[in-house]
Write a structure and sequence with these properties.
This protein has one domain. The protein is mostly helical and 505 residues long. It has 20 helices and no strands.
């Protein structure tokens, strides 16, 4: 267990370290920071790394087996009403506990945290039901994506501009480290219980559809909810004189985030308890392991949220403000490219995805090729986000053409690659996007005098969109290579037949 925890913390370190190094370099060169501020940032980074390590191990120990078991039991029951009710409930309560969503809710000043969180949770619940019914009734994923994204864009024209970028961001942050393991495991449970040829490929696409739900519900919230205009100001960092002051800031914040985490996790623990009481599916040792997993999850979330909100995100906002106010404001674009490249490169969930694609294609699309494609895609997405911050370009000019191209490509790519591509959008927009990139964009936007709601929000959405294009391009390359190999094999086979016939004569 200790070795596994060590491995998870190392994975988190590889994700956070590039950002930390970039911040330190910028604090020396372009945006000088006080020693106390840097101490606050580094302490937050340490808590974030350790917290994510505990959290990821906890989710793996508790969420994954729970998701697989629930999925398998539900589809074996063959009771559609039960499947619908349980899928909705599980999708909603897992989403409430998602750390990335809580970070986003704290940054959307125009809507109360709980209103946004519950809106998103309902959206995930509804579309998890849709995703499950798709598997049961064998409905085409590309067709469903086409219909729902057309509906999304039509709906967005009736929603206020202040909700559009937030809505698309919510789709990216929802599918985070808490939600993805459970939803993917649920899909595996359903497909395993089906045990047919299409079952494995149908397990992809659950995350893709669950990402649509939050976007749709937040857009509807924008139509029917009339919030008061919120003023976004640059984050103020407490005066830090000594190391004691640093420790004090984090200790004071722990009770608040502990309460939030316990309230979020308790419903999930309740579901686990009820499921075990009625099914007795887990033996004593498994139950103990999952209980330990829930404890790890709670500890990890507390450390994560405390580190992010007290030390990590505020410095991201401060850095953005400093760059936005300087004569080097256009340096935000190359800095965004570097951050985007390394964020996705170091994301543990992305590495899992890349290995999955390599295995699926038999090595035709290598792990290295996938890494390069995703890194370049996300780097471009972050660069476009910084251009939006500096110029105020409407997100529609980027996101509508991007999704149109992605949906058109889905008609020519293998359904498996379509599922992986749209699933990976949620995977790529990991914890670093909502905890650092978004505050950076908000700080820069405030400094240049832009509209934070319309210009800064949307960075998560663009990062989530990049893999849709990158992975489908990889899918087209795979199809081309497969055809070339097949043609060579056929030609070789024909030549062999001729030679055998000649020898026989």
């Amino acid at each position: 267990m200790n070795e596994k925890l060590k491995e998870k913390i190392q994975e988190s370190l590889s994700s956070v370290l590039p950002i930390t190094v970039i911040v330190l370099i910028l604090s020396i060169s372009l945006v000088p920071m006080e020693i106390g501020t840097l101490a606050l940032f580094l302490t937050g980074a340490v808590l974030l790394i350790v917290g994510m390590g505990f959290f990821q191990l906890g989710a793996e120990m508790a969420m994954t087996p729970l998701g697989q078991s629930v999925g398998g039991r539900l589809i074996k029951s063959k009771k559609i009403i039960l499947i619908i009710l349980v899928s909705f409930f599980m999708g909603a309560i897992i989403t409430i506990a998602e750390p990335d969503l809580q970070v986003l809710a704290n940054q959307v000043a125009s809507v109360p945290n709980q209103v946004l969180i519950w809106t998103v949770a309902v959206g995930v619940g509804i579309f998890l039901v849709v995703a499950v019914l798709r598997i049961i009734f064998r409905i085409s994923l590309p067709m469903m994506l086409l219909v729902f994204y057309i509906l999304l864009f039509l709906l967005s024209f009736f929603s206020p501009d202040s909700f559009t970028a937030v809505a698309f961001d919510s789709g990216g942050v929802t599918t985070g480290p808490m939600t993805v393991p459970f939803i993917m495991a649920l899909g595996v449970g359903f497909s395993a219980a089906r045990s047919d040829r299409e079952g494995a490929s149908d397990s992809f696409g659950l995350v893709a559809l669950c990402s649509i739900g939050p976007i749709m519900m937040v857009l509807l919230l924008g139509i029917f909810y009339n919030p008061e205009e919120a003023v976004y100001t640059a984050t103020e960092i407490a005066d830090i004189a000594t190391t004691q002051d640093v420790v004090k800031q984090f200790i004071l914040a722990v009770p608040e985030y502990s309460k939030e985490v316990v309230v979020s996790i308790l419903p999930v623990g309740g579901v686990f308890l009820l499921f075990q009481v009625f099914t007795r599916i887990f033996h004593k040792r498994q139950v103990l392991r999952m209980v330990v997993g829930f404890v790890y999850t709670i500890v990890g979330l507390i450390l994560f949220l405390t580190g992010v909100n007290v030390g990590f995100a505020p410095v991201g906002s401060l850095l953005g403000s400093g760059l936005g106010e300087s004569v080097f404001k256009w340096s935000l674009i190359p800095i965004g490219i570097i951050i985007g490249y390394y964020i996705v490169k170091a994301e543990p969930a992305v590495q899992v995805l890349n290995k999955q694609v390599e295995d699926l294609t038999g090595g035709t699309i290598s792990h290295k090729m996938m890494n390069s494609a995703l890194s370049l895609g996300v780097a471009c997405a972050v660069a476009l986000s910084m251009v939006r911050v500096l110029t105020g370009i409407n997100i529609y000019w980027i996101i509508i053409p991007g999704y149109i191209i992605a949906i058109i490509m889905s008609r020519f790519v293998s359904p498996v690659f379509v599922g992986i591509a749209f699933d990976s959008g949620g995977v790529a927009s990991g914890p670093m996007t909502s905890t650092f990139l978004l505050p950076l964009a908000m700080g820069a936007c405030t400094a240049v005098g832009g509209n934070v709601v319309t210009d800064a929000f949307g960075v998560v959405a663009l990062v989530a969109m990049a893999p849709l294009l990158a992975i489908q391009i990889m899918g087209l390359i795979y199809m081309h290579k497969s055809k070339a190999v097949s043609q060579v094999a056929e030609e070789f086979s024909e030549d062999t037949v001729v030679e055998i016939e000649e020898d026989f004569e």
